[in-house]
Amino acid sequence: MTEDNIRNDIREKLIAREELNSKVKELAESINRDYRGKNPVLISILKGSIVFLSKLMKYINIESSIDFIAVSSYRGREQSTGIVKMIMDLRESIEGRNVLLVEDIVDTGLTVAYLRDNLETRRPASLKLCTLLNKPENMEIDIKMDYLGFKIPDKFVVGYGLDYKEKYRNLPFIATLKPEIYRNK
Length: 185
Ligand code: IMP
Ligand code: MG
Prior knowledge:
The chain is α/β, with parallel strands linked by helices. The protein has a single domain, classed as Rossmann fold, CATH 3.40.50.2020. It is 24% helix and 32% strand. A 6-stranded mixed β-sheet has the order 4-3-2-5-6-7. α1 (17-34) packs across α2. The structure holds inosinic acid and magnesium ion (MG). Magnesium ion is lined by residues 45, 48, 104. Magnesium ion (MG) binds at residues 45, 48, 104.
């Protein structure tokens, strides 16, 4: 029988489950304070941010709603081409709404910059960004991260919603993978 345990592919755990959960709770408490009476709509950028969103929601105790949007960013081997395409749009109008974009990671910033510009044209009352992770070394565009969980070094990470070739999203922590994983599959 072949071993089918995704944990065997992990090189290094960067952020533990407990650390993630307490940070998410802290972020939700700030959101509760800042958005009281403002009925925000939390927009989850699929697919990477669903774990983050679902943890965050459980600690949000003010009137709010959720919606989803999906984009794909075309990447070269090393560098992003900067081309972002909408794959799935929001269900509801955001005109006049207080919008909080929920993202898993801001890397170059291109994805969030595209979405920010796109959503601004729909005249929301406000538009802010909540991201779990950021790689400051890689930023190509100036992005204001109104709520930020963790800054991480410029390493490819998986877990807590983040994938490598659609795998590892279900890991409850953030980790890097063994180099042979990138070579073999
Ligand atoms: P950006 O447009 O360069 O900021 O990239 C953002 C998107 O790239 C994120 O929404 C992720 O889907 C993906 N991404 C960037 N870095 C990582 C990583 O380390 N692991 C998994 N996905 C990543
Ligand atoms: Mg993503």
